[in-house]
Predict the structure.
Amino acid sequence: YKNNMEAKSASLLGEDLLQPPIVKSYVEESPEEADEEKRKAFFNHKKHIFVITAAGKPIYTRYGEEGGAASICASFAAIVPKLVGQYQTQGQYSADNTLRYIQSSSMLTVFLFKRNLIYICVTKKKLYSVSYLKCQLEYLHILLISMITEKPNTQLTTNPSLDVKSYLDSEETDTTLAMSLKYSAQTPYCFMNSIPVLRLPGGVRNAVSKVMNSNRPESLLIGLVIAGSSYISIVRESNIVVCPPDLNLIVVNILAHPAWRRVETSFAMCLPGIANDGFIYFTIKYMTKNIGIVFGTLSPDNYFECLAKANLIAQELEAQRLVDAITKSIYQNHLPLTTNYFGSVSSMIKGALVRHNDYMQMSVFHLPMFARTKEQRDTLKLLQDSYSRTADPSANFPEFEQWEKSGTEIVYIGNFEEKTILLLLSAIASSREIKIIKECIRKLLEADESQLFISEYQQQSQKLSSPTHKLT
C-alpha cells in the first residue's frame, strides 16, 4: 500500500516536470548567416526570451546560442535608449515611466529593466497578456541573481563591457533557467506571489513542526519540510524574513536536479530577499521520493551538523507515522471535491485558490499542481489575467468581490479579512451557489486554519529594505 501510494503521489506532484527540461535547439550561427531552415526554426518558436546587458551583450537566450543571437540583442540595446530618449526630449520621462512593451499587429515584446540588466520576451500577440509575461521575467531575474548574486549587475555600472555570461556555467544555467521558466508558466504560485502549502490535517502539520523545532541545528538560518513543490513546515531564525520568490527558488533548484532527491547532498545559492551579495548553503535529505528536509546555513562547514539533524528528524517522523500521513494527503489533495467541504454545490467548482495575504501563502483545491495539458494552461492563463486585472486585490486587504464569465467558466475573486479567494466555477453556477461556496470556504478557514496554511510561520508582507546578513 505504501509503495502504491507513493507512486501515485509522485505522478500527482508532477513527476514529468521533475525531469530535466527539453534540451535547447542550438543555432550555431547567427540567424542572418544561417541557412533558411535554421532561420525558420529559430523564428518559428512561439515565445523567445533574451537577457542582455544595457550595452547589448547577450547573457541568456531561451532558444539558440547567445552568440548566434548577438545581432538581435544589439538591436534591442539600440531600440531601448532611443525610445527612452524620446520621452526625455518630450519632458514625459520619469523614474517610474519606463518602456514596458512594444506591440504590433502580430507580435508583443515585453521589457523588464533591473538596473544594468534587460529582460525581453517576444511572443505572438494573442498568446499571452503583458502581465503574464512580466511575471515570468520577474521570476527569471530572481533566479539569475540567485546564481551570480547582484555583484555583476553592480560592476556593469563602472564596466559596461563586462561579460556577465562568464559568471555562469552554461549547461547548469540552461537546465535551471529552463526549469524556472517552465515552473513559472505552469503554476499559480508565481503570479500570486505566494508560498504553496500542502493541505494537511492540522494535527499532522503541528506534529511535523514540533519535530523540526526540537531538532533544529544551532547554525540554522532556514529549515523546510517539502513535498514536491509544496511546503509542509517552515522554521527560521527569528530575524529572517523570507519572501515567496526566495522559497520557490529553493524548490525550483531542487526540482531542476532530480539526482539530488536520491542522495544526501548540498548546494549553494543566493536568496535576493535575504541578501543579494552572497550565498546560503543548503543541505538536502529526502525521506521518500517526494518528501524531503532542507536546511540552510551561512557556512558550508555546517553540512555534517545539518545532515545529522535531518537524519534524526527523518527517524522521528517515520516513528510517528507522519511520513505516511503526508503521502496520503498528497494523494487526497488531488481527488475531486466532495461534499465534506462544499456540500451539494461541490459539483459547480472546477478549482479554488485561497491566499493568506498576511502569510503570503496559498492553498489549492482541485487544481493541478502544474498545468501540463493545453486545457490546464489555458485555465491558468485565465486565472492569472483575471487576478492581474484586479490591480493587486490583496493591497490593504479591501473587502470586495467581482466575477466575470469567460466561455464555459466563471472566475470569481473575493477578499475578506486577510484572505483572497479565487474560484473557477461552472458557467451554470448561480449567484446563490457562489454565495454558498464562499461561506463554505469561510467556515473551513475559521474551523482550522492550519489545514491550509503554516500558521506558526508569520510571513511579513513586505520585503526588507536592506539585507539582514552580510554574506560571503
